[in-house]
């Protein structure tokens, strides 16, 4: 029954029942973790053949000896495969180390200390600068901007991407906005994929010359349905919009092969790549080409990556289904929560009634179920409505996942009765 139409007495009765359920949950002594979007061991197993690659054949198809120093751009064969998957011409794509997050960090620090490509003033010298942060969003993005004192401005997420009207207004009014976080495909945590129209608007809208969109396409191929969306040729679109240097395209194989030992990518205009490579060359002579070669040999081509992602999908779909079924069965009727049914990516975003998220997370913690920390999906960990909880179904085994989610549902219901009773 809908909790919102219940009298205080009815709510108290339900709350008593839920408290008993909760006490049984606590007595079960669970130790379950739904916090981070890590691949499960059986997903990692899918790439085990890579462990014996490249074998004795340590040259790439152009004869480069991958054991040696050099080649700051990364292997051409790998850039061809992932260029197709990220919608970036191979000539505009660098293949780098094991973390795209590290590239995003370096792009930010280089902007602060050196200024962006073609700019005569560093970000740091322009006083306090700001980034637009579509929210809910990815906590580690927000951690980078917070660490360097860059002010974060939350922007609402709509079903087809960030609210472009809000972005346009903010950018027109404030030239100190220098960046924007964006996860264009199967966004973390909402699962939203940006539409072509939203993308075009983001690329066209007036902004400071040194404004950059971090187009973090971390989930470009991570589909839970038949096929991932065709990537938009965002660099070409940016050039057509008259802002060729506005976009940094990011990606990695962290959730394709091995999360700790993948390869990462940066796609950008030639001017941006020259700028980045110049500063990067101070920190490294070149990336781990043996790991890159391993990836080339393992996949062969872009279809090899797609076929591999279909195997991930077979493992992940039952887990997402299990979570969604439990949410539906336990929470739909009471109308105290809504959730996403994503077509890809790594998360389900759960919204509870305003004021109930922190309490739900606390109740779950005290019952041995770790949920992503309160507020994580917002800048400064401030969830303005205290309502968003990011669920990460990928890592646990399915039986554990079901137990954890059933427990989470009990916590949501109990927290909701508390909030509703307080407001009566
Ligand atoms: N971007 C997003 C949106 C992510 O969700 C993640 C991983 N959870 C990353 C980047 C991290 O990527 P990497 O392992 O390449 O640093």
From TrEMBL:
Organism: Gordonia asplenii
Classification via InterPro entries: AspAT_Ic, PyrdxlP-dep_Trfase, PyrdxlP-dep_Trfase_major, PyrdxlP-dep_Trfase_small
Species lineage: Bacteria, Bacillati, Actinomycetota, Actinomycetes, Mycobacteriales
Record keywords, A-Z: Aminotransferase, Transferase
Pfam families: Asp_aminotransf (PF12897)
Gene3D superfamilies: Aspartate Aminotransferase, domain 1 (3.90.1150.10), Type I PLP-dependent aspartate aminotransferase-like (Major domain) (3.40.640.10)
Protein name, as recorded: Aminotransferase class I/II-fold pyridoxal phosphate-dependent enzyme
Keyword Transferase part of the UniProt annotation: yes
PANTHER family in alphabetical order: AMINOTRANSFERASE, PUTATIVE-RELATED, ASPARTATE AMINOTRANSFERASE
GO MF term (any one): L-aspartate:2-oxoglutarate aminotransferase activity
Domain of life: Bacteria
Keyword Coiled coil: no
């Amino acid at each position: 029954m809908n909790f919102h139409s219940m009298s205080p007495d009815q709510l108290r009765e339900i709350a008593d029942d839920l408290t008993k359920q909760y006490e049984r949950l606590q007595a079960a002594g669970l130790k379950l973790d739904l916090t981070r979007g890590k691949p499960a061991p059986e997903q990692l197993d899918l790439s085990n053949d890579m462990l014996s690659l490249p074998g004795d054949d340590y040259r790439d198809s152009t004869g480069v000896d991958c054991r040696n120093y050099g080649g700051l751009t990364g292997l051409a064969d790998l850039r061809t495969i992932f260029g197709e998957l990220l919608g970036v011409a191979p000539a505009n794509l660098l293949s780098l180390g094991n973390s795209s997050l590290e590239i995003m960090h370096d792009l930010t620090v280089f902007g602060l200390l050196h200024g962006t490509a073609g700019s005569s003033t560093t970000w740091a010298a322009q006083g306090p600068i700001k980034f637009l942060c579509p929210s809910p969003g990815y906590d580690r993005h927000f951690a980078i901007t917070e660490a360097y004192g860059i002010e974060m401005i939350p922007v609402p997420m709509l079903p087809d991407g960030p609210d472009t009207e809000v972005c346009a207004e903010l950018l027109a009014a404030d030239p100190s906005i220098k960046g924007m976080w964006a996860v264009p495909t199967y966004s973390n945590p909402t699962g939203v994929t940006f539409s072509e129209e939203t993308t075009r608007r983001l690329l066209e809208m007036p902004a400071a010359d040194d404004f950059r969109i971090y187009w973090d396409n971390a989930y470009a191929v991570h589909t839970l349905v038949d096929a991932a969306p065709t990537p938009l040729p965002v660099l070409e679109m940016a050039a057509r919009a008259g802002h060729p240097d506005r976009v940094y395209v990011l990606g990695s194989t962290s959730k394709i092969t091995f999360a700790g030992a993948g390869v990462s990518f940066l796609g950008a205009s030639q001017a941006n790549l020259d700028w980045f490579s110049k500063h990067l060359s101070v920190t490294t002579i070149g990336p781990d080409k043996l790991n890159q070669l391993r990836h080339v040999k393992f996949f062969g081509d872009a279809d090899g990556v797609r076929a591999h992602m279909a195997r991930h999908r077979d493992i992940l779909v039952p887990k997402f289904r299990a979570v969604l079924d439990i949410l539906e069965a336990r929470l739909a009727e009471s109308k105290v929560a809504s959730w996403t049914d994503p077509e890809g990516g790594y998360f389900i975003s759960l919204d509870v009634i305003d004021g109930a998220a922190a309490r739900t997370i606390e109740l779950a913690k005290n019952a041995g179920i770790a949920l992503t920390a309160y507020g994580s999906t917002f800048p400064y960990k401030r969830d303005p409505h205290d309502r968003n909880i990011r669920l990460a179904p990928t890592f646990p085994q399915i039986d554990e996942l079901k137990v954890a989610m059933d427990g989470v549902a009990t916590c949501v219901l109990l927290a909701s009765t508390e909030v509703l009773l307080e407001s009566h």
